[in-house]
Write a structure and sequence with these properties.
heterodimer; A: 265 residues; six-stranded mixed sheet; B: 264 residues; 0% strand; elongated; binds adenosine-5'-triphosphate; binds magnesium ion
Chain lengths: 265, 264
Protein backbone atom coordinates (compact mmCIF):
# COMPACT_ATOMS: atom_id res chain seq x y z
CA UNK A 1 0.00 0.00 0.00
CA UNK A 2 2.80 2.41 0.89
CA UNK A 3 4.49 1.60 -2.39
CA UNK A 4 1.35 2.56 -4.24
CA UNK A 5 1.12 5.82 -2.33
CA UNK A 6 4.52 7.13 -3.37
CA UNK A 7 4.48 5.80 -6.93
CA UNK A 8 5.10 8.67 -9.35
CA UNK A 9 4.74 6.60 -12.53
CA UNK A 10 2.32 3.72 -12.83
CA UNK A 11 2.23 1.76 -16.06
CA UNK A 12 -0.67 -0.61 -16.30
CA UNK A 13 -1.07 -3.23 -19.05
CA UNK A 14 0.69 -1.07 -21.63
CA UNK A 15 0.68 -2.38 -25.20
CA UNK A 16 2.28 -0.68 -28.16
CA UNK A 17 2.40 -1.61 -31.81
CA UNK A 18 3.72 -0.32 -35.09
CA UNK A 19 1.11 -1.29 -37.66
CA UNK A 20 0.49 -4.99 -37.14
CA UNK A 21 3.78 -5.54 -35.28
CA UNK A 22 3.18 -5.70 -31.53
CA UNK A 23 6.25 -4.45 -29.66
CA UNK A 24 4.95 -4.18 -26.10
CA UNK A 25 2.35 -6.57 -24.79
CA UNK A 26 0.83 -5.84 -21.40
CA UNK A 27 3.73 -4.18 -19.60
CA UNK A 28 3.06 -3.10 -16.01
CA UNK A 29 5.35 -1.55 -13.41
CA UNK A 30 5.57 1.20 -10.79
CA UNK A 31 8.30 3.75 -10.32
CA UNK A 32 8.67 5.23 -6.83
CA UNK A 33 9.31 8.93 -6.38
CA UNK A 34 13.01 9.76 -6.31
CA UNK A 35 14.38 6.36 -7.32
CA UNK A 36 16.47 5.30 -10.30
CA UNK A 37 14.45 2.76 -12.24
CA UNK A 38 16.49 0.81 -14.78
CA UNK A 39 14.81 -0.91 -17.70
CA UNK A 40 17.06 -3.63 -19.01
CA UNK A 41 16.55 -5.44 -22.28
CA UNK A 42 18.21 -6.66 -25.44
CA UNK A 43 18.34 -4.76 -28.70
CA UNK A 44 14.89 -4.52 -30.24
CA UNK A 45 13.08 -5.54 -27.07
CA UNK A 46 11.03 -2.35 -27.16
CA UNK A 47 12.87 -0.22 -24.63
CA UNK A 48 12.84 2.94 -26.72
CA UNK A 49 9.21 2.29 -27.61
CA UNK A 50 8.37 2.10 -23.90
CA UNK A 51 10.04 5.46 -23.26
CA UNK A 52 8.28 7.02 -26.26
CA UNK A 53 4.97 6.02 -24.70
CA UNK A 54 6.04 7.30 -21.31
CA UNK A 55 6.90 10.80 -22.57
CA UNK A 56 3.89 10.96 -24.85
CA UNK A 57 5.54 10.67 -28.27
CA UNK A 58 3.34 7.65 -28.94
CA UNK A 59 -0.18 6.84 -27.84
CA UNK A 60 -0.41 3.34 -26.35
CA UNK A 61 -2.52 0.78 -28.21
CA UNK A 62 -3.88 -0.37 -24.87
CA UNK A 63 -3.28 0.19 -21.17
CA UNK A 64 -2.79 3.19 -18.94
CA UNK A 65 0.08 5.42 -17.89
CA UNK A 66 -0.52 7.34 -14.68
CA UNK A 67 1.86 10.18 -13.85
CA UNK A 68 1.54 11.89 -10.48
CA UNK A 69 -1.87 10.21 -10.04
CA UNK A 70 -3.13 11.75 -13.28
CA UNK A 71 -4.07 9.49 -16.17
CA UNK A 72 -1.65 10.62 -18.90
CA UNK A 73 -3.29 8.50 -21.59
CA UNK A 74 -6.71 10.09 -21.16
CA UNK A 75 -5.50 13.71 -21.32
CA UNK A 76 -6.09 16.16 -24.14
CA UNK A 77 -3.17 17.91 -25.81
CA UNK A 78 -3.14 20.99 -23.55
CA UNK A 79 -3.01 18.90 -20.37
CA UNK A 80 -0.34 16.63 -21.83
CA UNK A 81 1.74 19.70 -22.63
CA UNK A 82 1.59 20.82 -19.00
CA UNK A 83 2.65 17.36 -17.79
CA UNK A 84 5.44 17.17 -20.36
CA UNK A 85 7.05 20.31 -19.04
CA UNK A 86 7.66 18.38 -15.81
CA UNK A 87 9.47 15.63 -17.72
CA UNK A 88 12.89 15.59 -19.33
CA UNK A 89 14.06 13.16 -21.95
CA UNK A 90 17.58 12.29 -23.09
CA UNK A 91 17.48 10.60 -26.46
CA UNK A 92 19.54 7.64 -27.62
CA UNK A 93 21.34 9.83 -30.17
CA UNK A 94 21.15 12.93 -27.91
CA UNK A 95 18.98 14.74 -30.53
CA UNK A 96 20.43 18.18 -29.89
CA UNK A 97 19.41 20.73 -32.51
CA UNK A 98 22.42 20.92 -34.80
CA UNK A 99 21.54 24.39 -36.02
CA UNK A 100 22.17 26.08 -32.66
CA UNK A 101 24.95 26.20 -30.12
CA UNK A 102 24.97 23.93 -27.09
CA UNK A 103 24.06 26.87 -24.85
CA UNK A 104 21.09 27.81 -27.04
CA UNK A 105 19.99 24.19 -27.04
CA UNK A 106 19.84 24.18 -23.26
CA UNK A 107 18.23 27.62 -23.19
CA UNK A 108 15.58 26.72 -25.79
CA UNK A 109 12.90 25.26 -23.47
CA UNK A 110 13.29 28.27 -21.16
CA UNK A 111 12.99 30.72 -24.03
CA UNK A 112 9.87 28.98 -25.32
CA UNK A 113 8.08 28.38 -22.05
CA UNK A 114 9.07 31.19 -19.69
CA UNK A 115 9.01 34.96 -19.85
CA UNK A 116 12.38 35.39 -18.20
CA UNK A 117 14.82 37.96 -19.50
CA UNK A 118 17.24 36.71 -22.12
CA UNK A 119 20.24 37.39 -19.88
CA UNK A 120 18.65 35.45 -17.00
CA UNK A 121 18.00 32.52 -19.32
CA UNK A 122 21.60 32.54 -20.47
CA UNK A 123 22.81 32.35 -16.88
CA UNK A 124 20.41 29.52 -16.03
CA UNK A 125 21.50 27.57 -19.11
CA UNK A 126 25.14 28.10 -18.20
CA UNK A 127 24.48 26.75 -14.70
CA UNK A 128 22.96 23.61 -16.21
CA UNK A 129 25.96 23.17 -18.51
CA UNK A 130 28.30 23.68 -15.56
CA UNK A 131 26.38 20.95 -13.75
CA UNK A 132 27.16 18.38 -16.46
CA UNK A 133 30.74 19.58 -16.76
CA UNK A 134 30.38 21.39 -20.08
CA UNK A 135 30.68 24.95 -18.82
CA UNK A 136 33.38 25.83 -21.32
CA UNK A 137 31.60 24.38 -24.33
CA UNK A 138 28.48 26.55 -24.47
CA UNK A 139 29.51 28.19 -27.72
CA UNK A 140 30.23 24.93 -29.56
CA UNK A 141 27.80 23.41 -32.02
CA UNK A 142 26.67 19.83 -31.26
CA UNK A 143 28.58 18.22 -34.18
CA UNK A 144 31.78 19.70 -32.73
CA UNK A 145 31.38 17.71 -29.50
CA UNK A 146 32.28 14.08 -28.81
CA UNK A 147 29.55 11.50 -28.28
CA UNK A 148 29.94 11.55 -24.50
CA UNK A 149 29.84 15.34 -24.38
CA UNK A 150 26.71 15.35 -26.52
CA UNK A 151 25.05 12.91 -24.12
CA UNK A 152 25.87 15.22 -21.23
CA UNK A 153 24.62 18.25 -23.14
CA UNK A 154 21.40 16.27 -23.72
CA UNK A 155 21.13 15.78 -19.95
CA UNK A 156 21.61 19.52 -19.41
CA UNK A 157 18.82 20.27 -21.88
CA UNK A 158 16.49 17.74 -20.25
CA UNK A 159 17.22 19.42 -16.90
CA UNK A 160 16.55 22.93 -18.20
CA UNK A 161 12.96 23.13 -17.01
CA UNK A 162 13.75 21.53 -13.62
CA UNK A 163 11.68 18.40 -14.28
CA UNK A 164 10.39 15.93 -11.70
CA UNK A 165 11.00 12.94 -13.93
CA UNK A 166 13.88 12.39 -16.30
CA UNK A 167 14.12 9.58 -18.84
CA UNK A 168 17.39 8.43 -20.35
CA UNK A 169 17.49 6.27 -23.49
CA UNK A 170 20.71 4.25 -23.54
CA UNK A 171 22.81 6.94 -21.85
CA UNK A 172 26.03 4.94 -21.96
CA UNK A 173 25.65 3.14 -25.31
CA UNK A 174 28.53 3.74 -27.69
CA UNK A 175 30.81 5.25 -25.03
CA UNK A 176 34.06 3.84 -23.68
CA UNK A 177 33.81 2.32 -20.18
CA UNK A 178 35.38 5.30 -18.44
CA UNK A 179 33.11 7.87 -20.11
CA UNK A 180 30.13 5.56 -19.64
CA UNK A 181 30.87 5.35 -15.92
CA UNK A 182 31.07 9.15 -15.94
CA UNK A 183 27.59 9.38 -17.42
CA UNK A 184 26.28 6.90 -14.85
CA UNK A 185 27.81 9.01 -12.10
CA UNK A 186 26.10 12.06 -13.58
CA UNK A 187 22.74 10.27 -13.50
CA UNK A 188 23.30 9.42 -9.84
CA UNK A 189 24.35 12.99 -9.06
CA UNK A 190 21.26 14.46 -10.74
CA UNK A 191 19.00 12.10 -8.83
CA UNK A 192 20.66 12.85 -5.49
CA UNK A 193 20.95 16.62 -5.91
CA UNK A 194 17.45 17.25 -7.21
CA UNK A 195 15.62 14.22 -5.83
CA UNK A 196 14.81 13.40 -9.44
CA UNK A 197 12.90 10.32 -10.41
CA UNK A 198 14.99 8.75 -13.14
CA UNK A 199 13.97 6.11 -15.68
CA UNK A 200 17.03 4.68 -17.39
CA UNK A 201 16.81 2.38 -20.38
CA UNK A 202 19.95 0.39 -21.02
CA UNK A 203 21.50 -2.90 -22.04
CA UNK A 204 24.71 -2.22 -20.10
CA UNK A 205 25.02 -4.59 -17.15
CA UNK A 206 27.72 -2.42 -15.61
CA UNK A 207 25.23 0.43 -15.21
CA UNK A 208 22.87 -1.73 -13.21
CA UNK A 209 25.31 -2.13 -10.33
CA UNK A 210 26.27 1.52 -10.41
CA UNK A 211 22.90 3.22 -10.47
CA UNK A 212 19.88 0.97 -10.19
CA UNK A 213 17.49 1.12 -7.26
CA UNK A 214 15.00 -1.06 -9.11
CA UNK A 215 15.56 -3.15 -12.24
CA UNK A 216 12.98 -4.29 -14.73
CA UNK A 217 13.93 -6.83 -17.41
CA UNK A 218 12.08 -6.47 -20.69
CA UNK A 219 12.03 -9.22 -23.31
CA UNK A 220 9.73 -9.83 -26.27
CA UNK A 221 7.49 -7.01 -25.13
CA UNK A 222 6.93 -8.39 -21.65
CA UNK A 223 8.34 -7.78 -18.19
CA UNK A 224 10.22 -10.90 -17.07
CA UNK A 225 11.47 -9.77 -13.70
CA UNK A 226 11.24 -6.67 -11.57
CA UNK A 227 12.69 -5.67 -8.23
CA UNK A 228 15.94 -4.63 -6.53
CA UNK A 229 19.06 -5.58 -8.56
CA UNK A 230 20.19 -8.44 -6.27
CA UNK A 231 16.78 -10.01 -6.34
CA UNK A 232 16.48 -9.80 -10.13
CA UNK A 233 19.95 -11.30 -10.57
CA UNK A 234 18.83 -14.31 -8.53
CA UNK A 235 15.72 -14.72 -10.67
CA UNK A 236 15.29 -18.23 -12.01
CA UNK A 237 13.92 -17.12 -15.35
CA UNK A 238 16.17 -18.57 -18.07
CA UNK A 239 16.33 -15.43 -20.20
CA UNK A 240 17.16 -13.25 -17.20
CA UNK A 241 19.95 -15.67 -16.25
CA UNK A 242 21.16 -15.69 -19.82
CA UNK A 243 21.18 -11.90 -19.92
CA UNK A 244 23.13 -11.49 -16.70
CA UNK A 245 25.64 -14.20 -17.59
CA UNK A 246 25.98 -12.83 -21.16
CA UNK A 247 25.14 -16.13 -22.84
CA UNK A 248 24.33 -15.93 -26.56
CA UNK A 249 20.85 -16.69 -27.86
CA UNK A 250 20.38 -20.47 -28.23
CA UNK A 251 21.29 -21.76 -31.70
CA UNK A 252 18.44 -23.05 -33.82
CA UNK A 253 18.69 -26.80 -33.30
CA UNK A 254 16.11 -28.08 -35.75
CA UNK A 255 17.65 -28.01 -39.23
CA UNK A 256 14.34 -28.33 -41.05
CA UNK A 257 12.96 -25.42 -39.07
CA UNK A 258 16.04 -23.39 -39.97
CA UNK A 259 15.75 -24.13 -43.69
CA UNK A 260 12.08 -23.25 -43.65
CA UNK A 261 12.77 -19.95 -41.86
CA UNK A 262 15.28 -18.77 -44.45
CA UNK A 263 13.49 -19.96 -47.56
CA UNK A 264 10.04 -18.52 -46.95
CA UNK A 265 9.60 -14.82 -46.64
CA UNK B 1 -5.61 -11.13 -59.25
CA UNK B 2 -8.84 -9.27 -58.73
CA UNK B 3 -8.45 -9.23 -54.96
CA UNK B 4 -4.90 -7.95 -55.19
CA UNK B 5 -6.12 -5.15 -57.48
CA UNK B 6 -8.81 -4.32 -54.94
CA UNK B 7 -6.25 -4.39 -52.16
CA UNK B 8 -3.94 -2.07 -54.08
CA UNK B 9 -6.79 0.35 -54.75
CA UNK B 10 -7.71 0.33 -51.08
CA UNK B 11 -4.14 0.95 -49.98
CA UNK B 12 -3.77 3.74 -52.52
CA UNK B 13 -7.00 5.36 -51.30
CA UNK B 14 -5.87 5.17 -47.69
CA UNK B 15 -2.48 6.63 -48.57
CA UNK B 16 -4.11 9.48 -50.48
CA UNK B 17 -6.47 10.24 -47.59
CA UNK B 18 -3.51 10.29 -45.19
CA UNK B 19 -1.60 12.63 -47.49
CA UNK B 20 -4.56 14.99 -47.86
CA UNK B 21 -5.06 15.07 -44.09
CA UNK B 22 -1.36 15.75 -43.53
CA UNK B 23 -1.44 18.64 -46.02
CA UNK B 24 -4.56 20.06 -44.35
CA UNK B 25 -2.88 19.90 -40.94
CA UNK B 26 0.18 21.62 -42.36
CA UNK B 27 -1.85 24.40 -44.00
CA UNK B 28 -4.10 25.10 -41.01
CA UNK B 29 -1.14 24.77 -38.63
CA UNK B 30 0.90 27.29 -40.57
CA UNK B 31 -1.88 29.88 -40.56
CA UNK B 32 -2.77 29.18 -36.93
CA UNK B 33 0.80 29.69 -35.70
CA UNK B 34 1.39 32.61 -38.04
CA UNK B 35 -1.70 34.51 -36.87
CA UNK B 36 -2.66 33.13 -33.45
CA UNK B 37 0.82 33.00 -31.95
CA UNK B 38 1.60 36.71 -32.33
CA UNK B 39 -1.93 37.67 -31.21
CA UNK B 40 -1.61 35.63 -28.00
CA UNK B 41 1.83 37.05 -27.32
CA UNK B 42 3.76 33.87 -28.13
CA UNK B 43 6.09 35.61 -30.53
CA UNK B 44 7.01 34.83 -34.10
CA UNK B 45 10.72 34.00 -34.00
CA UNK B 46 11.58 37.11 -35.97
CA UNK B 47 15.29 36.41 -35.76
CA UNK B 48 14.97 33.03 -37.42
CA UNK B 49 12.70 34.51 -40.11
CA UNK B 50 15.28 37.17 -40.90
CA UNK B 51 18.09 34.58 -41.07
CA UNK B 52 16.07 32.50 -43.49
CA UNK B 53 15.19 35.56 -45.56
CA UNK B 54 18.86 36.41 -45.95
CA UNK B 55 19.60 32.81 -46.86
CA UNK B 56 16.84 32.56 -49.46
CA UNK B 57 17.05 36.03 -50.98
CA UNK B 58 20.60 37.33 -50.64
CA UNK B 59 22.41 34.06 -51.26
CA UNK B 60 20.31 33.31 -54.36
CA UNK B 61 20.66 36.80 -55.79
CA UNK B 62 23.96 36.30 -57.68
CA UNK B 63 22.82 33.26 -59.59
CA UNK B 64 19.35 34.71 -60.22
CA UNK B 65 20.98 37.90 -61.52
CA UNK B 66 23.34 36.09 -63.85
CA UNK B 67 20.68 33.84 -65.32
CA UNK B 68 18.18 36.69 -65.65
CA UNK B 69 20.71 38.79 -67.53
CA UNK B 70 21.50 35.95 -69.94
CA UNK B 71 17.84 35.10 -70.51
CA UNK B 72 17.10 38.76 -71.24
CA UNK B 73 19.86 38.78 -73.86
CA UNK B 74 18.73 35.49 -75.38
CA UNK B 75 15.17 36.74 -75.64
CA UNK B 76 16.30 39.91 -77.38
CA UNK B 77 18.29 37.85 -79.88
CA UNK B 78 15.56 35.35 -80.58
CA UNK B 79 12.86 37.95 -81.02
CA UNK B 80 15.00 40.22 -83.17
CA UNK B 81 15.44 37.47 -85.78
CA UNK B 82 11.70 37.03 -86.04
CA UNK B 83 10.73 40.69 -85.81
CA UNK B 84 13.37 41.73 -88.37
CA UNK B 85 11.45 39.77 -91.02
CA UNK B 86 8.53 42.15 -90.54
CA UNK B 87 10.75 45.21 -90.18
CA UNK B 88 9.62 45.59 -86.56
CA UNK B 89 12.91 45.30 -84.67
CA UNK B 90 12.01 48.21 -82.37
CA UNK B 91 9.38 45.98 -80.77
CA UNK B 92 12.12 43.86 -79.20
CA UNK B 93 11.89 46.17 -76.18
CA UNK B 94 8.14 45.49 -75.84
CA UNK B 95 8.58 41.74 -76.12
CA UNK B 96 11.45 41.46 -73.68
CA UNK B 97 9.78 43.76 -71.14
CA UNK B 98 6.39 42.09 -71.12
CA UNK B 99 7.72 38.53 -71.18
CA UNK B 100 10.12 39.31 -68.32
CA UNK B 101 7.52 40.91 -66.05
CA UNK B 102 4.56 38.66 -66.72
CA UNK B 103 6.21 35.31 -67.17
CA UNK B 104 9.91 34.67 -67.29
CA UNK B 105 11.23 36.51 -64.25
CA UNK B 106 8.69 35.01 -61.78
CA UNK B 107 9.05 31.52 -63.28
CA UNK B 108 12.82 31.51 -63.43
CA UNK B 109 13.28 32.87 -59.91
CA UNK B 110 10.77 30.35 -58.55
CA UNK B 111 12.40 27.37 -60.25
CA UNK B 112 15.83 28.42 -59.04
CA UNK B 113 14.59 28.91 -55.48
CA UNK B 114 12.79 25.54 -55.56
CA UNK B 115 16.06 23.90 -56.52
CA UNK B 116 18.14 25.85 -54.08
CA UNK B 117 15.99 26.47 -51.00
CA UNK B 118 13.00 24.13 -51.39
CA UNK B 119 15.40 21.21 -51.43
CA UNK B 120 17.28 22.64 -48.45
CA UNK B 121 14.05 22.88 -46.45
CA UNK B 122 13.26 19.22 -47.13
CA UNK B 123 16.79 18.09 -46.33
CA UNK B 124 16.89 20.08 -43.09
CA UNK B 125 13.55 18.85 -41.75
CA UNK B 126 14.25 15.32 -42.97
CA UNK B 127 17.63 15.20 -41.25
CA UNK B 128 16.02 16.53 -38.07
CA UNK B 129 13.44 13.76 -38.23
CA UNK B 130 16.09 11.09 -38.73
CA UNK B 131 18.17 12.30 -35.77
CA UNK B 132 15.09 12.49 -33.51
CA UNK B 133 15.36 16.29 -33.26
CA UNK B 134 11.67 16.64 -34.14
CA UNK B 135 10.82 14.21 -31.32
CA UNK B 136 13.02 16.22 -28.98
CA UNK B 137 11.09 19.39 -29.88
CA UNK B 138 7.80 17.62 -29.22
CA UNK B 139 8.96 16.33 -25.84
CA UNK B 140 10.00 19.85 -24.89
CA UNK B 141 6.49 20.98 -25.79
CA UNK B 142 7.65 23.06 -28.75
CA UNK B 143 5.41 22.96 -31.79
CA UNK B 144 7.45 22.12 -34.87
CA UNK B 145 5.17 24.09 -37.19
CA UNK B 146 5.58 27.19 -35.07
CA UNK B 147 9.27 26.61 -34.56
CA UNK B 148 10.36 25.40 -38.00
CA UNK B 149 7.68 26.02 -40.60
CA UNK B 150 6.37 29.52 -39.92
CA UNK B 151 9.78 31.28 -40.11
CA UNK B 152 10.54 29.48 -43.37
CA UNK B 153 7.10 30.27 -44.74
CA UNK B 154 7.31 33.99 -43.98
CA UNK B 155 10.88 34.22 -45.24
CA UNK B 156 9.99 32.45 -48.47
CA UNK B 157 6.90 34.59 -49.10
CA UNK B 158 9.06 37.71 -48.70
CA UNK B 159 12.17 36.41 -50.46
CA UNK B 160 10.73 35.13 -53.71
CA UNK B 161 8.92 38.37 -54.65
CA UNK B 162 12.12 40.30 -53.84
CA UNK B 163 14.13 38.01 -56.07
CA UNK B 164 11.46 38.21 -58.76
CA UNK B 165 11.54 42.02 -58.77
CA UNK B 166 15.31 41.93 -59.11
CA UNK B 167 15.07 39.34 -61.90
CA UNK B 168 12.59 41.55 -63.80
CA UNK B 169 14.92 44.55 -63.80
CA UNK B 170 18.00 42.52 -64.66
CA UNK B 171 16.27 40.63 -67.45
CA UNK B 172 15.27 43.91 -69.07
CA UNK B 173 18.85 45.09 -68.60
CA UNK B 174 20.06 41.94 -70.38
CA UNK B 175 17.77 42.62 -73.32
CA UNK B 176 18.88 46.24 -73.34
CA UNK B 177 22.57 45.33 -73.32
CA UNK B 178 22.23 42.99 -76.25
CA UNK B 179 20.01 45.33 -78.25
CA UNK B 180 22.28 48.36 -77.97
CA UNK B 181 25.42 46.35 -78.77
CA UNK B 182 24.70 43.47 -81.15
CA UNK B 183 21.52 44.93 -82.66
CA UNK B 184 22.88 48.49 -82.59
CA UNK B 185 19.62 50.00 -81.38
CA UNK B 186 19.49 53.50 -79.93
CA UNK B 187 19.69 53.22 -76.09
CA UNK B 188 17.28 56.08 -75.37
CA UNK B 189 14.80 54.79 -77.88
CA UNK B 190 14.99 51.30 -76.37
CA UNK B 191 14.29 52.65 -72.89
CA UNK B 192 11.43 54.80 -74.12
CA UNK B 193 9.94 51.81 -75.92
CA UNK B 194 10.24 49.70 -72.76
CA UNK B 195 8.56 52.39 -70.67
CA UNK B 196 5.69 52.77 -73.09
CA UNK B 197 5.13 48.99 -73.33
CA UNK B 198 4.99 48.22 -69.62
CA UNK B 199 2.08 48.86 -67.27
CA UNK B 200 1.84 48.52 -63.55
CA UNK B 201 -0.48 45.54 -63.97
CA UNK B 202 2.25 43.58 -65.79
CA UNK B 203 4.43 44.04 -62.73
CA UNK B 204 1.54 43.21 -60.40
CA UNK B 205 0.60 39.95 -62.11
CA UNK B 206 4.21 38.81 -61.91
CA UNK B 207 4.39 39.65 -58.22
CA UNK B 208 1.09 37.96 -57.36
CA UNK B 209 2.28 34.81 -59.12
CA UNK B 210 5.57 34.84 -57.25
CA UNK B 211 3.80 34.93 -53.87
CA UNK B 212 1.86 31.80 -54.76
CA UNK B 213 4.99 30.13 -56.12
CA UNK B 214 6.67 30.84 -52.77
CA UNK B 215 3.81 29.27 -50.83
CA UNK B 216 4.00 26.16 -53.02
CA UNK B 217 7.78 25.82 -52.69
CA UNK B 218 7.66 26.13 -48.91
CA UNK B 219 4.76 23.76 -48.29
CA UNK B 220 6.04 21.14 -50.70
CA UNK B 221 9.50 21.34 -49.10
CA UNK B 222 8.15 21.07 -45.57
CA UNK B 223 5.68 18.30 -46.43
CA UNK B 224 8.39 16.22 -48.08
CA UNK B 225 10.67 16.79 -45.11
CA UNK B 226 8.07 15.49 -42.67
CA UNK B 227 7.52 12.50 -44.99
CA UNK B 228 11.06 11.24 -44.35
CA UNK B 229 11.04 7.82 -42.70
CA UNK B 230 14.08 5.86 -41.63
CA UNK B 231 17.51 7.01 -42.66
CA UNK B 232 19.63 9.20 -44.87
CA UNK B 233 18.51 7.46 -48.05
CA UNK B 234 14.96 8.63 -47.47
CA UNK B 235 16.20 12.21 -46.99
CA UNK B 236 17.80 12.07 -50.44
CA UNK B 237 14.71 10.62 -52.06
CA UNK B 238 12.35 13.14 -50.52
CA UNK B 239 14.67 16.02 -51.42
CA UNK B 240 14.68 15.06 -55.08
CA UNK B 241 10.96 14.59 -55.01
CA UNK B 242 10.56 17.96 -53.28
CA UNK B 243 12.17 19.80 -56.20
CA UNK B 244 10.22 17.90 -58.86
CA UNK B 245 6.90 18.35 -57.05
CA UNK B 246 7.55 22.03 -56.40
CA UNK B 247 8.35 22.71 -60.07
CA UNK B 248 5.21 20.84 -61.10
CA UNK B 249 3.08 23.01 -58.80
CA UNK B 250 4.84 26.16 -59.97
CA UNK B 251 3.94 25.39 -63.59
CA UNK B 252 0.39 24.49 -62.59
CA UNK B 253 -0.10 27.72 -60.64
CA UNK B 254 1.45 29.62 -63.54
CA UNK B 255 -1.08 28.12 -65.94
CA UNK B 256 -4.03 28.97 -63.69
CA UNK B 257 -2.92 32.55 -63.09
CA UNK B 258 -1.98 33.20 -66.69
CA UNK B 259 -5.47 32.05 -67.67
CA UNK B 260 -6.97 34.34 -65.00
CA UNK B 261 -4.85 37.35 -65.93
CA UNK B 262 -5.07 36.83 -69.66
CA UNK B 263 -8.06 39.11 -70.03
CA UNK B 264 -6.43 41.86 -67.93
N1 LIG C 1 9.06 3.57 -36.37
C1 LIG C 1 8.96 2.23 -36.34
N2 LIG C 1 8.18 1.60 -37.24
C2 LIG C 1 8.05 0.25 -37.22
N3 LIG C 1 8.65 -0.54 -36.33
C3 LIG C 1 9.43 0.01 -35.41
C4 LIG C 1 9.64 1.44 -35.36
N4 LIG C 1 10.45 1.71 -34.33
C5 LIG C 1 10.76 0.52 -33.77
N5 LIG C 1 10.15 -0.49 -34.41
C6 LIG C 1 10.23 -1.92 -34.04
O1 LIG C 1 9.95 -2.04 -32.67
C7 LIG C 1 10.82 -2.95 -32.06
C8 LIG C 1 11.43 -2.33 -30.83
O2 LIG C 1 12.13 -1.18 -31.16
P1 LIG C 1 12.81 -0.25 -30.08
O3 LIG C 1 13.47 0.86 -30.79
O4 LIG C 1 11.81 0.10 -29.05
O5 LIG C 1 13.90 -1.25 -29.48
P2 LIG C 1 15.02 -0.96 -28.39
O6 LIG C 1 14.76 -1.90 -27.28
O7 LIG C 1 15.08 0.47 -28.06
O8 LIG C 1 16.34 -1.41 -29.14
P3 LIG C 1 17.80 -0.76 -29.07
O9 LIG C 1 18.44 -1.29 -27.83
O10 LIG C 1 18.48 -1.33 -30.29
O11 LIG C 1 17.66 0.70 -29.10
C9 LIG C 1 11.85 -3.37 -33.10
O12 LIG C 1 11.55 -4.70 -33.48
C10 LIG C 1 11.64 -2.45 -34.25
O13 LIG C 1 11.71 -3.17 -35.46
MG1 LIG D 1 16.43 2.05 -28.38
Amino acid sequence: MTQQADAIIEVDGLSARYGAHTVLDGVSFRVRRGEIFVILGGSGSGKSTLLRNLVGLMRPAAGRIVLNSQDFTAMDEAERLAVRKKMGMCFQGSALLNSMTVLDNVALPLREHTRLKSSTIDIMARIKLELVGLGRFGRYYPPELSGGMRKRAGVARAMAMDPEIICYDEPSAGLDPVVAAGVDKLIRKMQQTFHLTSVVVTHELASVDLIADTVCVLHDGQVLAIGPPDEVKRSSHPYVQQFFSRQPEAEVSDNNEYIRSITQL
Amino acid sequence: MLTSAAGATGRWTLKTIHAVLAVCRLVTGTFYWMIAAPLTGQGLRARSTLDHYVDYAARSLPVVALISFLIGAIMAMQSSYQLARFGAVQFVAHLVGIAALRELAPLMAAILLAGRSGSAITAEIGAMKVSEELDALEVMGINSIKFLVVPKFLAMVLALPSLTAAAMVIMIAGGFALSVTALQMDPWNYLAQTASALHIRDFATGMVKSVFFAVAICWVGVYRGFQVEGGAESVGKQTTSSVVTAIFFIILIDLVFTALFFSM
